[in-house]
Write a structure and sequence with these properties.
Blueprint lengths: L1 E10 L2 E7 L1 H6 L5 E5 L7 E4 L2 E3 L4 E7 L3 H6 L7 E2 L1 E6 L10 E7 L2 H14 L3 E8 L8 H6 L3 E6 L6 E2 L2 H11 L4 E5 L2 H11 L5 E5 L15 E4 L2 E4 H4 L2 E3 L5 H8 L3 H18 L1
Parallel strand pairs: 9-10, 9-13, 10-11, 11-12, 13-14
Antiparallel strand pairs: 1-2, 1-7, 2-6, 3-4, 3-8, 5-6, 14-17, 15-16
Helix pairs in contact: 5-6
Length: about 280
């Protein structure tokens, strides 16, 4: 069992969970993820590690309660425990001193971007973090990104906080006004696709984190199969980060909906179970 040191809400249906996982914390590098199960009869789900404290033996996860298992996970409180935490898994981010790096995070994708920002700053880069959400409550980790040494541009779709509009609009302005050497993107598939199309004409190296497509985290299920430059890759074992200009985002978007009906049924069953037990 993996004890939860702290569990707090940080946004609408988004929860920060710090959990004891000493072996993961000791070997983790930015960009990697873990497979967790809230209980012994839960399904396995992949979650990016947002931070690791080797001295304390803990890792930090940010969980958006969308499907049955993430909602189940977000019901756990401080002092309770997860059944399983396996990892770290996936290839670490390719971090070097590029010069000026822009990291774009959409919604809970900012939790994926956060460790990349810290690693890029540590490597000597000037880092600009563009983070966004539908409204104020969906913009997370802004103070942490600033503390890590990044220049932060916060955006909201509805204009309720920060810069009004999409993160891609802010990115376009940054590219127009400054020399950018690399862009990292993490968030919803349509957002990452828009980022890739924005940077393509300028031939700016762009890396997309394809976490949204991952299922079991081992490549065995085939659910994370992606087309990268005409070749088949598996996001959880060959990634999760890939050259965004080589990703077939149209295929990725279709595959990302493959389990949608199953998720709807599982959510309905979860709601029914909660109603019976309340």
């Amino acid at each position: 069992m993996y004890r939860i040191v702290e569990a707090t809400d940080v946004g609408p249906a988004v929860r920060k969970i710090e959990v004891e996982a000493a072996n993961v914390a000791a070997h983790y590098r930015a960009g990697q993820f873990v497979i967790v199960r809230p209980t012994t009869d839960s399904e396995r789900i992949p979650l990016t590690v947002a931070a690791a404290d080797n001295a304390a033996g803990t890792i930090t996860l940010y969980v958006q309660g969308i499907g049955k298992t993430t909602r189940q996970l977000n019901q756990l409180e401080t002092g309770e425990a997860l059944s399983d935490v396996a990892g770290p898994l996936g290839r670490p981010s390719e971090v070097e001193n590029y010069g000026t790096a822009v990291v774009v995070g959409g919604g809970v994708g900012t939790a994926i971007a956060y460790p990349v920002v810290k690693a890029l700053v540590a490597a000597g880069n000037r880092v600009i973090a563009i983070v966004g959400g539908r409204s104020r409550g969906f913009v997370i980790l802004e103070p942490e990104l600033e503390a890590a040494g990044a220049e932060v541009i916060a955006c909201t779709d509805d204009g309720s906080y920060g810069r009004p509009g999409f993160v891609t609009e802010a990115l376009a302005d940054v590219i127009e006004s400054r020399a950018v050497d690399v862009v990292f993107a993490a968030g919803p598939v349509p957002m990452m696709r828009a980022v890739a199309e924005l940077t393509r004409p300028a031939q700016i190296r762009t890396i997309a984190s394809l976490n949204p497509i991952m299922v079991d985290g081992t490549g065995m299920c085939g659910g994370c199969r992606v087309d990268i430059g005409g070749e088949t890759r598996f996001a959880c074992v060959d990634g999760p980060e890939f050259d965004a200009h080589l990703v077939d985002f149209e295929l990725l978007a279709r595959r990302n909906q493959a389990y949608r009906n199953f998720e709807i049924r599982q959510n309905a069953a979860f709601d029914e179970c909660r109603a019976v037990n309340s």
